[in-house]
Design goal:
- Helix content is about 70%, strand content about 0%.
- The protein is mainly α and about 290 residues long.
- It has one domain: MetI-like fold (Orthogonal Bundle).
- Helix 4 packs antiparallel against helix 7.
- The longest helix has about 30 residues.
Length: about 290
């Protein structure tokens, strides 16, 4: 009874403020609530059907896919590369490990403000940031409009997210690399394998659980990205994502039914990532 009493407040809080509000959002998404006054008139799946017939929502899906692919792939590749470099026991490892992890300590809002200046699309007398750096280095062909580029501007926004989260991915992979027994590497060297073959056939396959964890964590971050885009470019349709659409539908347009429907779809998308991850972990624990 003492143990139950200790965890009961947390159970009640989670039940009310997490699952209770999820249930309430689901009910609102099935209602005709549009305006400041609540309207719980049952409309079934109408909000969802209208959402999938809205061209803006398809722009959001396209932007989310582009952002997710660039962000997740870039963070994993850069994080793995940094982890492999730090795993070589080079001088100054502690300093560089802290340096690479530092961006994770700041918020996406701060990152967005800094990268908005770095990715300033202006040219001529107003050139600054990366474009000015390219101009000074004689690399004029790299000067571009960054996040204002039609269709692919969202990929430039993903660069800022990669900078912030690659250190976190590095920490995950570095922990995985340090858990690989040195005896396996020595045995491979005795058999004539070079370092590239050791990483390809021994180390990287043993890091697959770390890669799965990184995919899940980074994937769910990319699905609900909001503040980074707002800080860099504000509310612009070419950079629109479901989270921004949800905010505008709910708090700018007072279309609470549609906003709740977008929220439920985001929850389902995140669940598609989280549930397999939980199943994988539970299965491994049972096997052990």
């Amino acid at each position: 009874m003492t143990a139950v009493g200790l965890v009961l407040p947390s159970i009640l809080a989670v039940g009310i403020f997490v699952y209770g509000f999820i249930g309430w959002s689901l009910r609102v998404s099935l209602s005709a609530w549009k305006g400041l006054l609540p309207d719980y008139t049952w409309v079934g799946l109408r909000n969802y059907i209208e959402l999938f017939s809205d061209p803006r929502f398809f722009v959001d899906i396209r932007n989310t896919v582009i952002f997710t692919v660039v962000f997740v792939a870039g963070s994993i590749l850069l994080g793995l590369t940094l982890a492999i470099l730090l795993d070589q026991n080079l001088p100054g490892e502690n300093f560089f490990r802290s340096l690479f992890l530092f961006p994770m300590a700041i918020s996406f809002i701060v990152t967005g403000v800094v990268w908005r200046w770095l990715m300033n699309p202006a040219t001529g007398s107003r050139i600054s940031g990366f474009n000015q750096l390219f101009d000074m280095a004689g690399l004029d062909f790299l000067i571009n409009a960054w996040h204002t580029t039609p269709k692919w501007g969202i990929a430039a926004v993903a660069l800022a997210a990669i900078w912030q989260m690659s250190g976190f991915t590095m920490a995950l992979y570095l922990g995985g690399l340090r858990s690989v027994p040195e005896e396996l590497r020595e045995a491979a060297r005795v058999d004539g394998a070079n370092e590239l073959e050791i990483y390809r056939y021994i180390v990287l396959p043993m890091l697959s659980p770390v890669t799965l964890s990184a995919l899940i964590i980074l994937g769910h971050i990319s699905l609900k990205v909001f503040d980074l885009i707002i800080a860099i470019a504000g509310k612009q349709l070419p950079l629109d994502v479901p989270a921004i659409y949800m905010w505008q539908a709910t708090f700018d347009g007072y279309f609470f039914g549609r906003g709740a429907a977008i929220a439920i779809l985001l929850l389902l998308a995140v669940s598609l990532l989280i549930i397999p991850y939980i199943y994988f972990n539970v299965k491994n624990e049972v096997d052990l």
